[in-house]
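Hi D.,

Good news: the full-assembly prediction came through. Inputs first.
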Amino acid sequence: RKAGSMSTDNAKLFEEFVDYCTSLTQEHPEVITFLRGRLSKASPTFLSSVEFHNILSRCLTRVQKKRTKVYVYINELCTVLKANSSKRKINLSP
Amino acid sequence: APAEDDDGDDDDDPENRIAKKMLLEEIKANLSSD
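Then the structure:
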């Protein structure tokens, strides 16, 4: 369980979210692997940010309240992590 | 008898079903691009 450059608090929240979702996505464990992959490619600055902390808290609270939307929240996190990827493509300007 | 009656409620949520489909398609696309 490597958290990379993530702050301890965010790493803890992420693991909590993953632990919770793992039991709900047993039919597709590749989804969690994919989410972890997205995390490993995200920018260290973003991973330690308050913004990421807020998104994680929100997703965790929501999934605990509404387990039937587990893929919605995983998808949301994946999208956010992708948008903050450290390997983000630079816009080509003419 | 199908044992999915209890576990299948995540598929009852249309938003969840769409998100799941999107995720699985993205995973598949990522695998094939590697």
